[in-house]
């Protein structure tokens, strides 16, 4: 595999784009060697769902699009970032608040940490923000067939 791989997609800030972003990420990671039916792929799918849903719901119509960026460094570190143009950073709500939303970043942070990764939020030069996760790239070896040969 190459020392550095990148992929990116920009989508409209619309609820239908969440599914598109999720599929794009899973398909791209499958091309990079992560089978879509693994626990790691499921975790990444959930993280991407949360990140992109936040980009759609919490920008209050002030970000017409969001961008999902993927990068893989030396088969060791995967980074997935979701960038929108809204300047407000996400806020963590206290646990006592009785709301149906506002816990997405807590979920994302926990899932990333469970995989040995971390969550970060950074401002962009254009005045928006990127919410990103970094995970160790732990792609399973290619499956071995009953005959004892690795599948291509």
Helices and strands, in N-to-C order? EHHEEHEE
Q: State the separation between the terminal residues, measured CA to CA.
A: 14 Å
What proportion of the residues is helical, as a percent range? 25-40%
Strand content: 25-35%
Secondary structure category: alpha+beta
**DSSP summary: helix tally:** 3
Q: Tell how many strands the DSSP assignment holds.
A: 5
Oligomerization: single chain
Q: How big is the Rg?
A: 16 Å
Largest sheet: 5 strands, antiparallel
Describe the secondary structure blueprint for this structure.
Layout: E1 4-12, H1 16-31, H2 39-57, E2 65-73, E3 77-84, H3 104-114, E4 118-123, E5 129-136
Antiparallel strand pairs: 1-2, 2-3, 3-5, 4-5
Helix pairs in contact: 1-2, 2-3
Structure described in brief:
This protein has 152 residues and is of the alpha+beta class. Helix content is 30%, strand content 26%.
């Amino acid at each position: 595999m190459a020392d550095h791989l990148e992929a990116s997609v920009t989508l409209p800030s619309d609820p239908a784009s969440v599914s598109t972003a999720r599929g794009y990420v899973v398909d791209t990671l499958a091309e990079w060697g992560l089978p879509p039916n693994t626990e790691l792929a499921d975790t990444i799918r959930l993280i991407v769902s949360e990140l992109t849903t936040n980009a759609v719901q919490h920008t209050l119509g002030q970000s017409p699009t969001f961008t999902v960026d993927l990068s893989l460094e030396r088969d060791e570190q995967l980074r997935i970032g979701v960038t929108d143009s809204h300047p407000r950073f996400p806020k963590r709500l206290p646990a006592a608040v009785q709301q149906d939303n506002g816990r997405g970043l807590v979920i994302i942070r926990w899932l990333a940490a469970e995989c040995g990764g971390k969550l970060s939020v950074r401002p962009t030069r254009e005045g928006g923000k990127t919410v990103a996760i970094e995970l160790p790239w732990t792609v399973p070896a290619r499956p071995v067939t009953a005959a004892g040969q690795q599948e291509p």
